[in-house]
Design goal:
The chain contains five helices and 29 strands. By secondary structure, it is mostly beta strands. The protein has three domains: about 150 residues, STM4215-like; about 90 residues, Sandwich (Immunoglobulin-like); about 150 residues, no CATH class. The strands form ten sheets. Strands 3, 4, 5, 6, 9 and 10 form a six-stranded mixed β-sheet that branches. Strands 13, 14, 16, 17 and 18 form a five-stranded antiparallel β-sheet that branches. Strand 19 and strand 20 form a beta hairpin. The two termini are about 55 Å apart.
Length: about 400
Amino acid sequence: MKDPSDNIRTWLYEVLYGTVAYNNAYVPVYSFAPKDAVMPHIVIGEQTMDAEDGTKDAYITTNNTVIEIYASYTGNDAKYKAVNSIAEDILEIVRQRTRETHGSGGATVTAITGFNIITTTLAGALTDRIVLENMIVVFKQIEISMVVEEIDTADIPAAPTATAATSVIATSFSANWGAVSQTISYYLDVSTSATFATFVTGFQNKAVGNVLTYSITGLTELTTYYYRVRAYNSNGTSASSNTITTIPGSVVIGTQTWAKYNYSVGGWYVNDDPNTQPDYGLLFDWTEALAISVSGWHLPTKTELETLKTFVGGNTSAAHLMESGLTHWNVGAIGDDTSGFSARGAGAVDYLGNYLGLKESASFWSATQVDASLAYGMVLVHDATSIIIQDDANKMAKYSVRLIKT
């Protein structure tokens, strides 16, 4: 029988790394801890394997893995609490991952490449103080005993190919992937971390069924999300797919990534009507617009507005930036929205406080000022082809804000 020790060690590392925390900080995990390892830390230690037994088309064996937990000792017993708490977390995490099931028959999930986990038990525990690198540390040793079954990896599904997200709106998107033969169902991971160090609630190894698309809702607008998928059947789980990146509430236009919707926090109602906010966002004077702070995003410069204009076709290409139809524009509107920028006719408020142009025009601030009183902006008019890069926008006027990714 193939020795599962290396596979189990790798699986334990992946399960525990970035998962076990103490005092609001993740606990480092090592196979061999460096001399300057941060306290507390975890070491995946010695492994032993019991005698194998033949059964059906595979083999079953018991693998025992020692996990060591170290914490600094400061002259009292408080650090015993640390190692005990970390040990409890380790056992709960391992048990949880080995309890996960799939399929109508409830077959065990293959998280360890080439092996099914049948049972996991705590085989022993030891707590003590020891001298390590000339310092006294609190030490806890637990032994996790796993009964595993070797399987034919040829029957495990191939890794799926994840494809671009669709139906991307302000707070949701649909994840997509290609079909894999001999698959019962798929697991989906969604994270705001490119390394999947953390997961969106409910989307760590989520079983989504035998489908090729899945909707993820309740997300945060203009936040970068990552997803990957795995296929599984009764023989095991595939490797992860490639990773797809998507940003709800955004649109890629050329080399730029723009917010797809007008900013709608802390400004002024369009036409002084709160009911307009969902459709048109809010309006801001230039100082307010400049102060908007969204991590990874900023108010566009004049140069960035010029880049946008050039990409969609130049001075007479306003239609490509405007939402099509008459829902948010007056009769005569020429918008075709081929860029996906989807500008809506929110109008503006002039520096005297007069509201202008609902469904007739859209005005957007840039971060570039002309002088102490004026700034640059971009203006679109419902029935005009020109993209106007304005150089005389009074900073006291109130315009819409479209952020651009930094």
